[in-house]
Amino acid sequence: DAKTTQPNSMESNEEEPVHLPCNHSTISGTDYIHWYRQLPSQGPEYVIHGLTSNVNNRMASLAIAEDRKSSTLILHRATLRDAAVYYCILRDNTGGFKTIFGAGTRLFVKA
Amino acid sequence: SAVISQKPSRDICQRGTSLTIQCQVDSQVTMMFWYRQQPGQSLTLIATANQGSEATYESGFVIDKFPISRPNLTFSTLTVSNMSPEDSSIYLCSVLQGNTGELFFGEGSRLTVL
To answer: Which chain A residue shows the shortest CA-CA distance from B97?
Structure first.
């Protein structure tokens, strides 16, 4: 599985946008970029995913670089509830749909 | 979205014993996965459990230690055998559902081995 690199932690102020970066320089053409987050004492939850084009949903936006070697998860207005570990994951759906988690980025949100 | 229930939610176990964790899904799903999350760590995939076939284990995990059953499309069990303190972890069940390939997770089963 191709590897992703994320900062260990980031800090944000409440009600401000947050940009969570992810590098994946060895991404293959069939790898989808998935983001999950894990709130304290809960199982991970799906945030968003994309292949080549930028994606938006009610939770976040995903900006994918043109060469696909990096991506950014954008939380448009951070709330205290967004404090979590965010995982950037590459998954090739031809490989049995296994989802391999890296270390992720722990996001701290200040009131 | 799938709703996943895991039992037990937490347990304290003695060294050398075995514990079976149950995972019940509110809809039929083909692909199910078991993960382990050690204290302060990320998730590690233990195995893929698809109904109708033997579970496929990841490197470092073996069937004798983590036997898995998948009797139907809504249920699975993971047994942690001959437990040691190193097995103290949160064990999570997840299922793949929908056209997006979104994973849904249970709340996890927190095991403490003394």
So the answer is: A97
